[in-house]
Amino acid sequence: MGQTTRVDLALSPPPGILHLAEPVLMTLADLDEVAAIEHEAYPFPWSRGNFVDSLGSGYTGLCLREIQGRLLAYSMLMPVIDEVHLLNLCVARADQRQGLGAALLAASIAAARASGFATMLLEVRPSNLPAIALYQRYGFSVIGRRKNYYPAPDGRREDALVMRLNDLTGIKPETLHVVA
Ligand SMILES: CC(C)(COP(=O)(O)OP(=O)(O)OC[C@H]1O[C@@H](n2cnc3c(N)ncnc32)[C@H](O)[C@@H]1OP(=O)(O)O)[C@@H](O)C(=O)NCCC(=O)NCCS
Whole-prediction pTM value? Predict the structure, then answer.
């Protein structure tokens, strides 16, 4: 992971997820679709430029597509010394609650683990209960809180929970959901 290291994305798709392609590295060519999903999924989305900057900085983006090609979900991982920060994990609105978030989180963890990272960190809004439930299911625990970290409606701010997964080796792809 990083500017020069190619990550090993090998991930055995769990039984039943036969219509998914293997996750692949995000490139600039993906960004029209990524930005469209991002703007539909988040009240305060990243701009296209945020993705351009992330890729330009050597961060690792992963894209999960249908075999037929349609983009379903993506993540963005930033290596910081010996930790990986999960900056973004997003499933297209219409495709949520089918196990794709879990599948992409597992693929992101697998990519980080394959690159030798032992821990993963992320920030999440305390109001984002679906995401918190997903992260907790994968063994992340809350290690801190950043006050007024996120923009919120009506000019207000929302805190961020900082969550960490300490042992990336503990994730087993066979625990993933099955997409019918
Ligand atoms: C958070 C997100 C990635 C989850 O993806 P998903 O594909 O819908 O989630 P999955 O179907 O893989 O669900 C896996 C687990 O996540 C949790 N979960 C997902 N959606 C949930 C919901 N609406 N309510 C409660 N728990 C939920 C559950 O623990 C679920 O396991 P279960 O089905 O056994 O209860 C997705 O809702 C999303 O993209 N949201 C918008 C972007 C976002 O907020 N990203 C996180 C930023 S920190």
Answer: 0.90
